[in-house]
User: Fold this.
Amino acid sequence: MHSTLHVCIIEAKQMNWLKAHFLVMLTGSLPSEWGDAGAFPALSILVLRNFPFGGTLPASWGNASFPSLTYLQLGPNKLSSTLPPEWGAPTAFQHLSTLMLTNCSIAGNLHAIEVHGIVL
Assistant:
């Protein structure tokens, strides 16, 4: 039985952390809907690692949809893309102190993104 990361998780407005590891039955890509305004207002930690999902990093995640996020770990996975320029917007990831994309296939040109004084 295989499933995808479900969009309906955004109904959990008060969730402050989400850690999921080794859910090998999940396939697909990261839901762009998680980047909708107000989707995760209280989420401070998001860890999605060792999934077989792939695709690209959703540009919509840089649209101020994670106003409390301090820690983001998305690897190892089968992600392959560049960092979307939206992730470097002044309103994106305002409290992010850790971004881990370990063992993802982030290829091509990485945009010079400055997140609150830190150039990625």
